[in-house]
TrEMBL record:
SUPFAM superfamilies (alphabetical): SAICAR synthase-like
Cited InterPro entries: SAICAR_synt/ADE2_N, SAICAR_synth, SAICAR_synthetase_CS
One cellular-component annotation, GO: cytoplasm
Enzyme class: ligase
Keyword terms of this UniProt record: ATP-binding, Ligase, Nucleotide-binding, Purine biosynthesis
EC number(s) given by UniProt: 6.3.2.6
Domain SAICAR synthetase/ADE2 N-terminal: 8-261
MF GO annotations: ATP binding; phosphoribosylaminoimidazolesuccinocarboxamide synthase activity
One GO term of the biological process aspect: 'de novo' IMP biosynthetic process
HAMAP family cross-referenced by the UniProt entry: SAICAR_synth
Name under which the protein is recorded: Phosphoribosylaminoimidazole-succinocarboxamide synthase
Pathway terms, separated by semicolons: Purine metabolism; IMP biosynthesis via de novo pathway; 5-amino-1-(5-phospho-D-ribosyl)imidazole-4-carboxamide from 5-amino-1-(5-phospho-D-ribosyl)imidazole-4-carboxylate: step 1/2
Family the entry assigns: Belongs to the SAICAR synthetase family.
Length: 291
């Protein structure tokens, strides 16, 4: 695959290109690959159609979340998911180039990962006190805004408190980010729940187009969110990942990989089962068949 545009950035599983032209300046192309990462490593075996499924899922979520965005006087950055180069058809989004805000806007509806560790230490998540007795996987009394910094490629995002968001973007914009993040998460969680999926948490990125707040990046995908099968949700232990559990289980229990060396190739059955999870998530959420 070669996109004949200037490459601006390469993430673990995605690339971003300059798609501006004199007639249409300030445009980017976000391209999703079939690469999958696990345990902070990009695995050598691609998952066929992962890039297309997650791109089409973002496109669908942009449609679903537009009423929430409009209620805040905000919008999203998607211009087109069809007006893209042939060799990335279906797995690329033409978007508006924004002035990106330096905050990862994370919303958590359930206790998991770093949130559980913070709660165990402090009885709260950031400045939100939580009731006693919560465990890994517990649903929180209300979704919590847990912002972080945008780490350099390959680094981990760092948790920041609301005051740090205020310092970065100003008080009014910080409050707007928190409220919009929580509203978008709640709408997404409501739609996902109806499809049998627990949206445990998610990360949004926003930018500015002039003074307008704009939802950017990918949205509510299994790469930017924790998706759990609702049927197996059982607080008290790590919840199975909707999309990556086959990969994690094989790497942990079958492959003999030590998690420090180069990860091994995935067996065909794990690849096929993982592809099926992505397709099923898309079809369950959208009610559309994945072509
Ligand atoms: N979305 C968006 C966006 C926008 N609409 N305007 C300006 N900048 C960005 C932008 C810059 N970095 N990223 C993260 C990112 C995404 C995909 C692949 C990568 F390598 C890195 C997003």
């Amino acid at each position: 695959m070669s996109v004949e545009l200037p490459l601006l950035a390469r993430g673990k599983v995605r690339e971003i290109y300059d798609a501006s032209t004199p007639a249409a300046p300030d445009r980017l192309l976000l391209v999703a690959s079939d690469r999958i990462s696990a345990y902070d490593h990009v695995l050598p075996t691609p998952i066929p159609d992962k890039g297309r499924v997650l791109t089409q899922l973002s496109v669908w979520w942009f449609e679903q979340l537009t009423p929430v965005l409009e209620s805040f006087g905000a919008s999203h950055h998607l211009i087109s998911a069809t007006d893209v180069p042939d060799d990335v058809a279906g797995r690329a989004m033409l978007v508006r180039r924004l002035e990106m805000l330096p905050v990862e806007c994370v919303a958590r509806g359930y206790l998991s990962g770093s949130g559980t560790k913070e709660y165990a230490r402090t009885g709260s998540i950031r400045d939100v006190a939580l009731p006693a007795g919560l465990v890994e996987g517990s649903r929180l009394p209300a979704p919590v805004f847990t912002p972080s910094t945008k780490a350099e490629v390959g680094e981990h995002d760092e948790a920041i408190d609301f005051a740090a968001v205020v310092s970065a973007v100003g008080a009014g914009r910080a409050e707007e980010l928190r409220e919009l993040t929580l509203a978008l998460y709640s709408r997404g969680a409501e739609i996902a729940e109806a499809a049998g999926i627990v949206l445990a948490d998610t990360k949004f990125e926003f930018g500015l187009d002039g003074d307008e707040l704009v939802l950017a990046d990918e949205v509510l995908t299994p790469d930017s969110s924790r998706f759990w099968p609702a049927s197996s949700w059982s607080p008290g232990a790590a919840q199975p990942s909707y999309d990556k559990q086959y990969v994690r289980d094989w790497l942990t229990n079958e492959s003999g990989w030590d998690r420090t060396s180069t990860p091994p190739e995935l067996p065909d059955d794990v690849v096929a089962a993982t592809r099926e999870r992505y397709v099923t998530a898309y079809e369950q959420l959208t009610g559309r068949s994945f072509a």
